[in-house]
Amino acid sequence: MKIQNDGKQFYIGEKEDPKALLAYEYIDDHTVRAYHTVTSKEMQGQGIAGKLYKEFMDLVKKEDLKVQADCSYVRKKMEENEEDKGYMV
Questions:
Q1: Which domain holds residue 62?
Q2: How many CA atoms are closer than 13 Å to the CA of 67, on its beta-carbon side?
Q3: CATH number of the domain bearing residue 31
Q4: Of 25, 34, 41, 72, which has fewest CB within 10 angstroms of its CB?
């Protein structure tokens, strides 16, 4: 299972019809908005959303970005982790 990133989403499966994804967009050079996370029924319960979140946060930290967490899953994960919480706007 390979996680891919096309600059707008981290996903598993085909780009046009992913089995799981975490969608985001750049608001400006320093801020990214995470707005949707979903896993297909067949992928649920395997920690896939958490793996997508980890990839997303690796990108955030590498690029020293701030996150506008409009996605409830991303917001919850960030609030649960003190280090990640520091990246929230």
A1: 3-85
A2: 30
A3: 3.40.630.30
A4: 41
